[in-house]
C-alpha cells in the first residue's frame, strides 16, 4: 500500500473521502495545534489546552449527531442510542491528552477516526439504525504526565481507581481533587466511584491507535489487528564486586561487576531473541507458550550506571534496569525465572553479589477473539475498497505499549486496531501517519459499525 | 611471611630494629597526622600541612646525617657526599603529598624507609664510606590533587615540565607561580628550568612504594621488584543506535547500542584475560610480546551511561570508557588495534555506529635490569636476615599505577621496590602496611646502599 491517491477512489461514494480523510486529517491538524506550549505540542490532564480540546471534541461529536457530556474526571462522551437504547453499548475510546513535545496522532487519531466514522453514518442516514448504542469517549488522562498515574480517565470508567486517587499530588503538591475543583469539578470519593460503568450496560470496547512501532510499516500494511497488550515486568539489577585501581589489580584477581553486568546483558539479549533455545518444557513452558514468546517477547536495558564511575577505577557496583514484555504472562514469568537464574550463575562464577528487584509487574491483556475477528474483517473490507485486490491477510500484532484498553478490559471485552506510523516513531513531533492511512482507519471503523450486531 | 615478631631477631645488631622498624613506623604515624583536615589525611602541594611536613622531613634527614635544602618547587632534598663527592649520585625518592582522605603509607613509606636506612648507616659509621653521593628527595606533588597535573615535583628535577607549567591554575584560578609566591618562593620559567639535574651528575634512581595492589599479599611476600610501570591508554567509546519504545520494537528490528556495548565489553574482558587467543603473529605481536602481555595486561570499564536513560526506552546512545595498561607498549597497541577492530565489527553487524576516541596515551617505563637485579639481591638479603630460610625468589611484578619514577626515567635509569599492603588497598584510610614489612623495606634499602658500587 503505497498510500498514493488514485482518482478513481474519489468517485465512489461509499468511501466518504471528504469526511473520513480530508476532514479527519484537517481535524487532526487542528487538534494538534491545541497546546499549552507555543513551540511544541503539550496537552496534559485538564490543562487549559485540554479544556479547549474538550470544547472542540464536543463540537465535532455534536456535528456527528451525538449527544455529548463531560464527566467529573474530564472525559468527553458522545453517544447515539441507535435502534435499541436498552441494548448493551459499544464504547469506542482513545485519549486526548499528550506527552510533552508530542506528536499529533497519538491518542487523537482514535478519537477523530471514531467521530468521523459516526459522522459518515449520520450523513448516510444510518446512525439511528445502529442495533445498539455507540458511545465515543475521549479519555482525559492516559499518559499520566502531570500526576504520574496512568489511565486516570479510562480507569474511572472501568472502576479501577481507588478512592485515594483523588489525593495524589503533582510536583507542586496540588492534589487531583483540588485541581478538579479549580476546574469547577467538585468530585468526591463517592462520586468518583459512581463514574464506573455497569458491566451489564456495556457490550464491548474498541480503540484505534497508532502502532508506535515499526512492524506495520515494515510489512507494508496500513492497519493491523491487535492480539493483545503485553504484560510487563521491570527489574532493577545491582551487581556488587570489589572496587580497585584500574592498573594494579590483575585480570585474574578481579571481581568486576561491570564485566559481570555486560555478560548478563548479552545473555538477556540472546534469551529474548531465542527463548526456544533457553526455556525447557519440564514444567516451565508449553510449546504454545514458547511460540507466542518468540513473536512477542521484547527485553530492554534502558538505564545503566557504575559507582564510583571513574575511568581509572574498577567499579564497586553496577546497576541496570531490565524491561521485559510479552503477550503471554506465563512465558514472561518463565523468561524472568531463567534470566534470574543466569544472572545469579554469572555472579557466583565471578564471585560478585547480585540483587534483582522487581520494580513493576503488570499482566497482559488479551483482546477478545470475536471483536478482533470483526475488526479484521472491517479492516480487510476497508482496504479492499481502497485498493481493490488484497493478497495478504491483515496483520495481527502485539502491543508492547500500554493503552486505555488495558483499563477498560476490567470492564468489558476489548479490541484494538493499529495504524501504521512512519518509522515507528511516537512521542515525538516526528510522529506521522499518511493521509490515506487516516482514511483507512476511519473507513475500517465505519465498516465495523455498519456490521455491528 | 607472617609478619610475627620473633624474639631472636631483636638480638641481631645488623637488623637495626629500633631505627628501621620502631622509629620508622613511629615516623609514618607522625607524618600521617600532618594533615590539612581534622578527620582524615589530606596534604596537597605546598599546603600548610605540606609546609609542616617539609620541616619534619628535613629534621629527620639531618638526624640521619644529611645536608638538606628545599628547592623552588617545594621538593625536600637530603644529601650525603660519601667518599667521592664528584661521583654520579644515587637518587632515592618518593612523594610527600597525598590524595584526599589518604592512607598514611602512600608516598611516605618511600621517604621514611630511605631516611631510616641512611640513619642506620650513619649510626653504624658507614655513611661517609658510600662510594658515591646519595640524595633522598621528598617530591612535593605527585598526585596532582590541587593543580590536576601529576609529577610537578619530580618533573621539575627531570626537566620535563614545560615553562608554561607555572601558568596552570587551580579551581579558584590561582596559578602555580602565584601560589609559590604566596609561599615565599619566587620562581620564573628560567629558574624552573634550572631545577633540572644534569644527567651526567646522576647515576640512577630508586623508589620504594607500597604496591597499591593485591599481588604481593596473595603470593605471601613482603617485597617485590618492579619490572616496569605500565603504559596506559584511555579510550572513550560511543555507540549510537536507534532510540525506540521498549515495548513496541521487536527484538529482530532493533539497533540497540546497549546490547552492542555489552557484547563489546565481554569481548574486551576476554581479550585482556587471554590475549594469546586473539592476537596473531602476522605483523602485530612477537611471542615475547604476547607472553609479557599475559602477565601485565589489565583492562577496565570504569564509566558507562545511556542516553536518554529511561527504563522503558531503548537507548539511542551508550558511552563508556576503557582503560588499558600493559608493560609492553607494542603489545598494548596491538590489543587496542584488535579491540577497535572487534568493536567496529560488532557495530557493523548490529547496524549501529561506533566512535572510539583516544583520550590519553602514555608509554611504559622499563626499570633498569641491573638496578632491578641489585634491588632483588637486597630484598633477598633482607628477608633472609629476618626469616632465615627463603625458598622462593623475590617476586617481580608490574606497576599498573604511575609513580615519580616515570618522570625521573627521563633523567636516569630507575628501579623500584614494592611493599605489600593489606588487601591491595590504597588511596584510602584503610591502607595498611605491617610493621615488619616496613622493617623489611628499610632493611632492603640498607642492604642496597651497603652494596652500592
Describe what you observe in this structure.
- The structure is a homodimer of 453-residue chains.
- In chain A, strands 1, 2, 3, 4, 5, 6, 14, 15 and 16 form a nine-stranded mixed beta sheet that branches. In chain A, strands 7, 9, 10, 12 and 13 form a five-stranded antiparallel beta sheet that branches. A two-stranded antiparallel ribbon of chain A has the order 8-11.
- The radius of gyration of chain A is 24 Å and the shape is globular.
- Chain A has 453 residues and is α+β, with helices and mostly antiparallel strands.
- Chain A is built from 14 helices and 16 strands.
- In chain A, 53% of the residues are buried.
- The mean pLDDT of chain A is 90.
- At the A-B interface, strand 8, helix 9, strand 9, strand 10 and strand 11 of A face strand 8, helix 9, strand 9, strand 10 and strand 11 of B.
Name the poorly predicted regions of chain A. Answer: none
Structural class of chain A: alpha+beta
Distance between the termini of chain A: 30 Å
Rounded to an integer in angstroms, the radius of gyration calculated over CA atoms of chain A is: 24 Å
What assembly state would you assign to the polypeptide chains in this entry? Answer: homodimer
Number of strands of chain A: 16
Order of helices and strands of chain A: HHHEEEHEHHHEHEEEHHEEEEHEEHEHEH
Average pLDDT value of chain A? Answer: 90
Report the helical percentage of chain A. Answer: 25-40%
Number of helices of chain A: 14
Largest sheet of chain A: 9 strands, mixed
Largest interface: A-B, 59 and 59 residues
Approximate strand percentage of chain A? 15-25%
